[in-house]
Every structure is written in structure tokens, then in C-alpha cells.
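seq as requested:
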Amino acid sequence: DLNSSLKGLKSLSYLDLSSNRLENVSARQFADLTFLNGLFLQNNKIKTIGGQQKFVFASLVKLSLRNTSNEIISAFNLSSSKYLEQLDLSQNDVYPAREIMSSLPNRTLMYLNLRSTNLSFSLAFLARLTTLNELDLSENSLRLSEITYLLSINRFETGLLSNVNLSSEAVEMYDTVGED
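C-alpha cells:
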């Protein structure tokens, strides 16, 4: 039982619950973990979020929700994480994207993994993430205009775009350029 396992661990700084077949969690289960710097919930198919309370971690630095569920991503109050530097949302359908992306901390986030997230939203939110220097958008469908936009934000040290599917607009433009 996760409730009893986390009781008394108030000074815990890192918690890795990856690949534990978690299906049900609630913010109340984590409420006492006020010093948590790293939370890793990847590879759990969380279906149920108990209660309406959002997950709030003021001191969180690293958060991995890779291959979990959209429900758990939406349940996090990311704007409350004043120190969040690394966020992995890969292998999820990130929806409602506008709400989630607008809640990202814009002065601390340095690494964002959106690999294989079926991007269906504008990448314009990246401009306000002034400390972001590593971005993974691999295995998504992008328009050429989005790739051009990413290249115009020249603060990235690492930008991964492997296996990106270019839209037909981009392929047509590439073919036209290639004829010269």
C-alpha cells in the first residue's frame, strides 16, 4: 500500500516509483513529501487520480512522467514547482496541451522531453522558457515552420529531432528547394 509506505518519509529527497504497475495515486499520498527534489513515475499506467487535489511539489527539481498517462500529467500543478529544471513527458499524449504547457515554470526549466507525444499544439510556448537549453521533440510530426522557429531560438545546447515526420507542406517545400 503506497499510503503506508510513504508515511514517515518527510525528509525524502528522491523517490523512484518507476515500472511498479501503479494504477491509482492521489496527491494526498505525497502530501508529506515536502523536501522531494526528484520524482520518477515513468512506465506506470496510472488510470485513477484519487480526489480533486492537484499534486504540488514546491522543491521539485526533476520530474519524470514518461509513459504514464495524461491523467497524471494534468494532475500536477507544475507552476508550483519553483525549482523544476528537468521534465520528461515523453511517450504520452499531452492533452490539454495548452493548459499543461502554459503551467511550465519559465525561469528554471532547463530540460524538456516531449519525445513521441503526438504534438498537436504550437511550439510558441518555448519562447517564454528562457532557461530551456535541452529539448527533445523526436518522434513527432512537425511542420517546417515549427522547425524553422526552433532554429531561431538559438539558446539550445541540445535539440533532438530524430525520426521527426515532416508534414506534407515541409516535404513539398524541400522538394522544390532540391530542384535548384
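Confidence is low (pLDDT under 50) at residues 170-180.
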